[in-house]
Amino acid sequence: MKMIMGFASLVLATAVATLTGILVKKKRHHDLKACGCADGECCNSVRPSERRYQLPHAHVEHWDKRSGKCDPKWAQLAPGDAVEVTGDKPRSSFGTLILLRHGQSVWNRNPDHPSDLWRYAGSIDIPLSEVGMQEAFEAGKRLKHVPIDVVFCSQMDRARTTMSLALSVHPSKKTPVVEHSSPLDNPAFEGVNDKNPYDFIIPVYVSPTLNERNFGDLQGVPSTRHTRMFDKEHVVKIRNDYYTRFPGENGESCEDIHNRTIPFFNSFILPHLAAGRNVLVSSHGFVIRTLIKYLDGMDADEFNEQMKLEKTAPDKCLLLAPTGVPLMYKYNKGKFTKIAQSCRDRAESLSRSTAPY
């Protein structure tokens, strides 16, 4: 009798565990559909220690660059020549442009488990990994001798968090404040007290124009699976060719990035540089590469050749966009001059610019 009761209890416990597992799985599936993730990796691959710097709900937002959602009116593309901007008095006759790619994301890190594969993020809003957070702190320390006056940032969590963490350790101790007015107008915080607000506040302008390239059908796809969808040579061409779009309805080419980024740069960022201010741009790999191409005066063929060198001879590549290592240009009298990196920064750039595709 005792044996029968024990067996019945075991069967009941197994049934309860199975039913609980099914219910949990259904709830997880519902949650994944609610957040819009293809497989939940952007929600479930984040460690508890990596959540502490996340912005609320940012890791489950999938921005559509064409919708203009959450896009301030001034962020609409407005091609045109640079105009004068108002605000504080510049400290010098030239401005410094600082290009900062976000730190390592949870989809770029080395996986803890074989199932957690490197994935194509693109315009999916993935947060920083622990390594990426440390890279952001290091970026702020690397800029300790460079005053920062204005910040332009993409909407995506990994770029905004990188900017925030970098500025949190910057010697200026200024507080970044997101502005919703035009970058060409006086910031809304002017006149809040008797002190010059630029002494302790940095205006931050957030725009989807600076979001990462949309990887189309490859977004969220593990790096080991893309070769099942497309042959390797085709994937390499998609990534490296200036005019080739990623497959899918919203897939973008580097030319598309140029067409949405450069007019924005000339209309809103360049005026601050012309006024002698130092501008930090916190963005993403392909946006940074597109800006480098533009600033260095490369044509499409040169861009393609440089993208090939990123894998074959990275020490000769002029388009390296390392995570968390600032790249700087001096702007003076209408010309951009690249500021040479230190030996340490160059070594870090080489080690952080590789991707498994």
UniProtKB/TrEMBL annotation:
Identification of the protein by name: phosphoglycerate mutase (2,3-diphosphoglycerate-dependent)
SMART domains, per the entry: PGAM (SM00855)
Coiled coil (UniProt feature): none
Binding site for substrate: 101-108, 158
Residues spanning the signal sequence: 1-17
Domain of life: Eukaryota
GO molecular function: phosphoglycerate mutase activity
Family membership noted in the UniProt record: Belongs to the phosphoglycerate mutase family. BPG-dependent PGAM subfamily.
Organism of this sequence: Peronospora farinosa
Keywords: Glycolysis, Isomerase, Signal
CDD domains attached to this UniProt entry: HP_PGM_like
